[in-house]
Structures are given as C-alpha cells and as structure tokens.
C-alpha cells in the first residue's frame, strides 16, 4: 500500500503535504496494513473496512468529502494478500485443504488513487450506496460469488433508477469480484427485473488473472477491484 500511494503521488506530482485526507483499509484484523502505512505518512486518516468493497467505498466517501468542501485532495487506497486472507477467513495455506470450483483466490496487491477538484479526463459524477446487507443465507466461505451477487444486482438496479438511466448509457458496468460464479447470477437476477446487462458487464475478478492460472472461479479481495480499475480500466478509457 505504501508503494501504491507513493506511485500515485509521483504520477500526480504531489507531495504528502499536498494531501488533506487518507481513506484506506484492508482485509486484516483492525486494518493493520492501512494503520501501519498511515503511521508513516502522517496524513489525516480515516480507516475503512468494507471487505471487497473497500476500494470503491473509499472513493465514494472521499468524493463526497471533496464535493462538500471538507477537503481539496484525498487518497483512497486499499490492499489485500492471499496468504493472510486464507489464514484469517478460511484455512492457512499450509493446511492443504481442498477447495471447490466455486472458491476464489484473494489478490495480493494494492491500489491507490488521488481524488481532487483538479480537472481531469477521469471524473466521479455519482455513487450509489447499497441498501444495507443483503443476506440470502449463503454460508459457504468458498462461494462468495453467490453471496454477493444479490447485493450487486440490487445496487445496480437502484443506481439506474436513481439517475434515470439504462444499461445503454454505459460503456462498461464493472463489478468487483463476483467471479465466474456470481457474474451469471447477477445477470439472471437483473434479467428478472427487465435489465439486460449483456456484454456491457465485466468483473474485476475475471479480468485480474489469465485463463491459464489456477485460481478456481477468479480473483477476489480488496485489491482486486482497485488494481483492475485504477490501472487497466483507466488506461483503456
């Protein structure tokens, strides 16, 4: 995370003193990675935990704070690590437990973005926050795609309704880490509401790895959407 933030500052030609707020989180207990990084940066720090949504949660909150005049520049950052996530949420890698095809592989990496009032080709125009926690009773820790798909579908539907838009208004509708299991479920759920995503949808968990990598249903974790969005997607804009 420290490297990602340093890279973002360097690309924008900013110093740490130019940043008003750091919004960051990770997957470890007490967001220890983000706290260690914040300890060194000495930037006013808001610590966030949204699990796999942390990257976009931090972006949405930072944007609202800047739009409201409470800050001029903010950094939104997150990170995750495969081994630590396996140890904390499933089984340590050394345990050697077998995984089903529905499992995802936590991405090891970090992403950071600087949000400001400066004019840029990349702009944040709106954000729709999901309505609470949608729990459909999925209890399998190796099938997160099925657990998250209903909330993703509901949030996309609400976003389109709030803004009076349709799928055709977007070049891409990107989800974080529904993987190869959750992505078809997302499309089926929205289809029931008359919303056809078609080829407009893609998932960071399906983009981050190549087909020849043994990652089961795809990628997951805080860094998954951050790395794909802040690098690959921005470069393809």
Automatic annotation (TrEMBL):
Protein name: Stage V sporulation protein AD
InterPro entries the record matches: SpoVAD, SpoVAD_sf, Thiolase-like
Gene3D superfamilies: Stage V sporulation protein AD
Region (Disordered): 81-104
GO molecular function: acyltransferase activity
Source taxon at top rank: Bacteria
A Pfam family matched in the record: SpoVAD
Species lineage: Bacteria, Bacillati, Bacillota, Bacilli, Bacillales
